[in-house]
């Protein structure tokens, strides 16, 4: 089967959720302008990315890199085939997201109290109550809800996280109208065997919802984990152009897996994404130039194969 820039034609499809404009930028020392962030989002759409985590409705005093969410949503190029996702952590954030007309609301619910209290100022149980309130408030808006279970593979404060704990949190999320549930390796501690086990256990309780995975490459296992997820049947994966990213509230957290490197892995393995590898690599370089740092991704340096 021939492999082109967007994956083998007619092959099984894997959806890529581009998280660079939010998760990719939120931990960077340099704060990009609203105009640069709009350009980044629009260029991602031009590359073929159809779901883009564009903004975060958090307190800009805590995360200044995410200031200007409303201005960005006003400035991005809208289209019926591109979903602009807004991250929401509380009811105030939801009200802002609805007013800004995001395409999709994503709520992060940690699997551990240690991370939840430090990152979001509440326990996991309290966050699940907040999620239920957000879910009720979204009724009638037409905006779909997705939920990310952060620290699903390990916590910087509470240590190991059991599969049973993650399943318990997912089971409570499944009581909402969420159309998709994501498992996030927030600090990049997971390994492929753990991915296989956790995906299998969670699949039994998601109630037919789409399952998504989010990996960081902190310990150089992110791409192996992404492949393990794909092998386990996951067909939605997060990544960030250039491989930028990290959490300001997770010590030593480093970048997300890079979109361009993930595309190479998936395309050469016979899966289709519909995303241009060359355009994604160019956007990773463009983003790095604006952040004044070299992208962690390799494709921008090594290039595709065959050339």
UniProtKB/TrEMBL annotation:
InterPro entries: Aldolase_TIM, HMGL, PYR_CT. This is Hydroxymethylglutaryl-CoA lyase. Belongs to the HMG-CoA lyase family. Keywords: Lyase, Metal-binding. Residues 14-281 form the Pyruvate carboxyltransferase domain. GO terms for molecular function: hydroxymethylglutaryl-CoA lyase activity; metal ion binding. It comes from Nocardiopsis flavescens. Gene3D superfamilies: Aldolase class I (3.20.20.70). The lineage of its organism: Bacteria, Bacillati, Actinomycetota, Actinomycetes, Streptosporangiales. SUPFAM superfamilies: Aldolase. GO terms for biological process: ketone body biosynthetic process; L-leucine catabolic process.
């Amino acid at each position: 089967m021939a492999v082109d820039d967007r994956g083998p034609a007619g092959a099984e499809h894997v959806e890529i959720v581009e998280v660079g404009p939010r998760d990719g930028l939120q931990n960077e020392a340099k704060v990009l302008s609203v105009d640069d962030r709009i350009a980044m989002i629009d260029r991602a759409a031009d590359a073929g990315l159809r779901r883009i985590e564009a903004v975060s409705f958090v307190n800009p005093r805590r995360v200044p890199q995410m200031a200007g969410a409303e201005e960005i949503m006003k400035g991005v190029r809208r289209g019926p085939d591109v979903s602009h996702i807004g991250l929401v952590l509380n009811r105030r954030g939801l009200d802002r997201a609805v007013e800004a007309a995001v395409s999709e609301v994503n709520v992060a619910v940690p699997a551990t109290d240690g991370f939840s209290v430090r990152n979001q100022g509440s326990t996991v149980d309290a966050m699940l109550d907040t999620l239920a309130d957000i879910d009720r408030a979204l009724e009638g808006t037409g905006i779909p809800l997705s939920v990310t279970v952060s620290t699903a593979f390990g916590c910087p404060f509470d240590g190991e996280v059991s599969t049973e704990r993650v399943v318990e949190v997912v089971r409570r999320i499944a009581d909402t109208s969420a159309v998709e549930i994501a498992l996030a390796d927030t600090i990049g501690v997971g390994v492929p065997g753990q991915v296989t086990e956790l995906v299998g256990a969670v699949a039994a309780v998601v109630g037919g919802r789409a399952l998504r995975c989010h990996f960081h490459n902190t310990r150089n296992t992110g791409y192996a984990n992404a492949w393990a997820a794909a092998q386990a049947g996951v067909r939605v994966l997060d990544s960030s152009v250039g491989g930028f990213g990290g959490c300001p509230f997770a010590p030593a957290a480093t970048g997300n897996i890079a979109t361009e490197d993930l595309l190479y892995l998936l395309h050469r393995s016979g899966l289709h994404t519909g995303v241009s590898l060359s355009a994604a690599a160019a956007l990773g370089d463009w983003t790095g130039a604006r952040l004044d740092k070299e992208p962690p991704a390799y494709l921008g340096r090594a290039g595709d194969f065959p050339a």
